[in-house]
Amino acid sequence: MGGRRMLGVIGVGQMGGALVRGMVRAGVLSPDQIIVSDSERDRATALARELGVKAASGNPQVAAESELVLLAVKPGLVGRVAEEIAGSLGPAQTVISIAAGVPIAKLRGWLGASGAAIVRAMPNTPVLVGAGAFALAAPDVAPERVEAIKRLLGAVGQVVVVGEEMMDAVTGLSGSGPAFVFVMIEAMADGGVAAGLPRPVAQQLAAQTVAGAAKMVLETGQHPAALKDAVASPGGTTIAGLAELERAGFRAAVVAAVRAAARRAREMSESS
Questions:
Q1: CATH tag, 5-167
Q2: Do the Cβ atoms of 102 and 120 come closer than 8 Å?
């Protein structure tokens, strides 16, 4: 790859910065393998001081010097940035976009005749604590490149590969999903307070309960319904609470929330 760095990141705000920090801290990349830029140059310089990565003079330098170029800018800016770096890219490179609602066809048009491979990715905010969920769509990318990207992003969460037609559903589920879970944690804590717990204790117990339950699903491989049934003893406290959730339409509300978010993601894709 002609002396290029492994990863270039354009946009090191909350999400881009978290990805760089996660990869360095996990040891999947060394700081000298990463080059970064940002529209706020001080932000890139600060990250360079913090981690030892290189701060570029601008976006074209990042593109020219990187095997993988991660576009971590807002959807409204991705077109301008892609056109800016197109002349600095070649067929041996891969561009990864995390811009929500921006399809690969649109990215290909902006990147012109560069020939760079294009991957569309959807992360979620728990990458900030190394527990993200990533979905990748890479219909025209060689499997070995996809595997390399999975290894890098796996430093800050779990990665799945899906068809691009599924990305709107991914956005509705794992992209927007943390907000739905935060509301549930808040509501559980409110219930604890209503039952007599101090607020800090209620919030800690609610958050850890959600974290532990999610870990059980991931690590046991059991269906959530089976895990739920194992907790719900006949005539006990859990089944009484579950009956209230059913009465209030909890399941239907969660399904509707994910579908509404996915529908909005589709609308954004169609209008981009």
A1: 3.40.50.720
A2: yes
